[in-house]
What we know:
Layout: H1 3-13, H2 35-57, H3 72-80, H4 92-111, H5 126-144, H6 148-168, H7 215-220, H8 271-293, H9 295-301, E1 309-315, H10 321-338, E2 347-353, E3 362-364, H11 367-376, H12 389-399, E4 405-410, H13 420-430, E5 433-438, H14 456-459, H15 461-470, E6 474-476, H16 482-485, H17 487-492, E7 497-505, E8 511-517, E9 522-529, E10 535-539, E11 545-547, E12 556-561, E13 564-569, E14 576-583, E15 588-595, E16 599-607, E17 615-617, E18 628-635, E19 640-649, E20 654-657, E21 659-662, E22 667-672, E23 679-688, E24 698-703, E25 708-709, E26 713-717, E27 723-724, E28 729-740, E29 743-744, E30 750-758, E31 763-765, E32 769-772, E33 779-787, E34 797-806, E35 812-821, E36 832-838, E37 853-861, E38 869-876, E39 880-887, E40 893-902, E41 907-914, E42 919-925, H18 936-945, H19 950-954, H20 956-962
Parallel strand pairs: 1-2, 1-4, 4-5, 5-6, 27-35
Antiparallel strand pairs: 2-3, 7-15, 8-14, 9-13, 9-15, 10-11, 10-14, 12-13, 16-17, 16-18, 18-22, 19-20, 19-23, 21-22, 23-24, 23-25, 26-28, 28-29, 28-33, 30-32, 30-34, 31-33, 34-35, 36-37, 37-40, 38-41, 39-40, 41-42
Helix pairs in contact: 2-3, 2-4, 2-8, 4-6, 5-6, 5-8, 6-8, 8-9, 10-11, 12-13, 13-15
Bound molecules: 2-acetamido-2-deoxy-beta-D-glucopyranose (4 copies).
Amino acid sequence: MTAGQSVGLLVMLSLPGLVLSFQPLFTFEGNSATHRHITERAVLRKTAEVCRDIAASMGQDFSLIIDDRLTANMVQRACSSTGASTSLLSSAMFHFSIACIYLSNANVDLVFVLSPKHHFDDEIFEEGRDIITAGVSAVKASAKRQSFVGGRWTLGKVFHTLQDFYSHSNWVELGKKAPFSTLIRPDQPFTNLADSNTPTCRSCVEENCVDNLLPDVLQKGLLTTGYFGIFSSKKPAGKCSHGGLLDRTSRRNPVGGINKDHVGSSHGSLHHNAADLAVNATMELLQDIRLAVGDSNFLRLMGLSHSSVLCFVIDTTESMSDDIAEAKRVSFNIIDSRRGTQQEPSAYVLVPFNDPDFGPLMTTTDADVFKESINKLSASGGGDIPELCLSGLQLALTAAPPTSEIFVFTDAPAKDAHLKNTIAALIESTKSVVTFILTNAFPRHRRRRSPLEVTPHANFQLYRDLAQASGGQTIEVPKSALSQATAVIKDSSASAVVTVFQVVENPGRPDAFTFTVDDSLSNATAYITGASTLTFSVTSPTGVSQSSNQPSGLLASYTTTGNLYRLHLNTDNRAGLWKISVSSENSYSVKVIAQSSVNFIYNLVEAHEEAHGDFSLKEGRPLSGGNVSLLVSVTGSDHVNVTEVTLYDSSGPTEVHGSLQSVGSSSYLVTFSGIPAGEFVVRLKGEDGSSTSRSTRSSFQRQASTQIKTSSISVTARADSTNIEPGSTVSIPFTVATTTNGVVDDAATGTFTVRANNDRSYSSSSPRTVAIAAGSGGTAKGTVTLSVPASAASGTDVTLIIEAENEAATDANYAVLRFSVAAKVTDINRPVCQVVSTSSSCLSSSSPCASSQWVFIANLTDGITGTGIESITVIQGNGTLNTSTVVGAGGENITVATYSASCCSHNVELAAVDRAGNVGTCVGQARVPATAAPAVNTASAAGHTSTLSCALWIGGVLYLLWG
Ligand SMILES: *[C@@H]1O[C@H](CO)[C@@H](O)[C@H](O)[C@H]1NC(C)=O
Ligand SMILES: *[C@@H]1O[C@H](CO)[C@@H](O)[C@H](O)[C@H]1NC(C)=O
Ligand SMILES: *[C@@H]1O[C@H](CO)[C@@H](O)[C@H](O)[C@H]1NC(C)=O
Ligand SMILES: *[C@@H]1O[C@H](CO)[C@@H](O)[C@H](O)[C@H]1NC(C)=O
């Protein structure tokens, strides 16, 4: 692109209402569907179907109606349990995962705006399909490795290209009612494409493009897509255009276009048909992934999780034996008391560290594996403090699912303090919360304490800063009192924990804080950390007060451990405005948590190039003085209105109010203009109409944990591809600039320290510094390289953070890049099935169906060149499957599948998955007399309740999968 072109692009991208594909996130065109809607509808319906199938296979009811009215809350609830509709349930992770997928989807319009193959423009079919199928392979590999974050990111990109096909091609105009499966089947040839010499369109009549596809194309069923050009009107003779304001090709003969991006497009009258087909196509792709990775991994990829993750980072130096014993005790207690319930942690992460080692990282969904690992930890060596705490924490932050709470146990300062900015960036991008449990702040001595060590207080400041940035706490206790401090771990690992209010006062000053307690809250707990001289009082909505000299009273009972006051608040029937007043001249923090299904998630987004059109995910810190936009979704209730979203900085204190715009699905686009430099938290207030206990609406408030820190430095980096082959190196150019009020200061100069870190310890190079020279337009450029070892497994996620810090080390910002390791897929063929026989023993209509069995035998093979069959599963039918492997005539492995079932269950569908994730299916049906049509559902339910006890279902589908 020339400079002239790039200016042109900027100008055009700034046009309001610019549309190149389905609108990515928001719609300002009537009730058009966006990529976000299409993605949400498909994910919700497919997830619900999987839960329905699991329920059916267990003979359980599943009453949810699967249609386009589903919400994430409804699906989460239906998948989590049958009857327990009043139970606490958090759908925040599910919402968060869906948002990741649609934000990644939307990002394609930003990064690949001019790449025709990413949007099925210009009759490019093969390359468009390659993007989809390579992406699908990468998603399957990621899900199998349980790298769900990377998997979601890739999935979003794949969805974009797939969904665009239905808007940009003439598939809908050809009258097709089903998705074009060839797009997800690399082994199938494209047939019936309009070749390059075949004209496809005639000019539209005035503005009317209803009839512009040539009759011959429609009669012969030839497939084509529109041509698109922002800078050039060139297109092959007689070809259709995309159409629309920006598309120059559509002004040349044949004029007009065929896209169905929104209701006002050239073929806008078919917009909803295209969007509906895109939903079904997205579901078809999800079904393929589901069959390849299995139901459990599929549901986890979708973010459906019933509880939190227990995540410990533990110093294993000699002086830590008490702490290790306590971590063991509290985790065993949590596991044993919650086993088999919805509160049982859904996964476990453990990272030991000392010096010179950290790791290995242990992640598991099996409580016993975790117990065994933590049992094996022993305190030894590493006498010379400090330790590699941040390195261990870094591993945990990248391994734990986003928004996890991580507990760090140590009694020594960090030796690897240089990782501070990287850790802060990881905290901000994962929104995970880090709480430190420090056992050396009190006069107890480690053995072989270094004489050089400064006072513990100053040494632990780094931990306090990181805890504060994440919304966690720093609990400083003598080792003898550890067991009281770990109550916070039990509190936070309960289900559906929300933060109602949190503030850090540093420096300390006497202050009073109010917060709204709503009816949905239970087990409200307040933590106050601060000096031992601190005093406080709690006041209820009716004005009743209780002060800190009363450890047990009407409103609260509390315990004190080290620097921590833990108050159990008695909020039952006391909804309304509560107040906590604190008197202290030293720094202190107040945090109020509780259990509630109602919570919210948010993501920072930024407008595309000043356009009014759309937004994309913003990673890295927002610019001081600039505008900030948040995409906020309320979770856990479909009946709430958000009334207020603010950014609050306690150091001012400063509170910036956002303007709210509802964008559907309980979501809001919130914009803040000109936010000052600072460290903010997001606070949300709303009204919940689902509250049944009172006729009036109930007000509620929630607060996000992670701080949003602003920066005057802008760091931008973009990689051409997010998939990296093992054994290859990618180069990522980046740009650093200084900004004023959110705009690049083109007269600025300066030098910046650059660090590039990735979470896999892959080798990477970067300049140590970059400098903005006078007259350079205010930007400095550099390149980071990342090398993936040849041994890296497909499906491994890599997160690369490129950070730039100013010379005074007072300000830093960063760019986040996510990659998936993806080996080239050579096996694109699905396993094939040959039916050998179907027994006819169900033909007798005289005997009851349950008294006879039928047998279905099939040969399945991946051929001589395939990667081989990895698994065969029954996806329909409740009989039993036996397999054996034999070598066929051509030397290929043949898996002989023998399926037998009662004559009450007539159908079977088997899925065979090869090692590359290709899925082949095999269908069989019992031959039955026409009159004997047994009630299949009842019969199949009966067949299963005998083997699965109903008690198991209490925890719901999710518990069964991971419990
Ligand atoms: C999408 O699939 C659903 C369920 O299979 C079907 O009812 C609907 O008609 C399909 N929609 C389109 C546009 O083909
Ligand atoms: C939380 O509250 C519920 C009822 O609201 C109660 O049954 C449960 O025991 C409480 N849990 C804790 C840890 O206090
Ligand atoms: C939310 O707002 C709408 C429209 O302003 C109103 O009809 C509805 O009752 C409100 N719901 C709640 C729970 O406040
Ligand atoms: C199925 O495999 C068996 C074992 O190799 C072979 O004997 C048989 O001929 C195969 N049947 C079909 C229909 O391919």
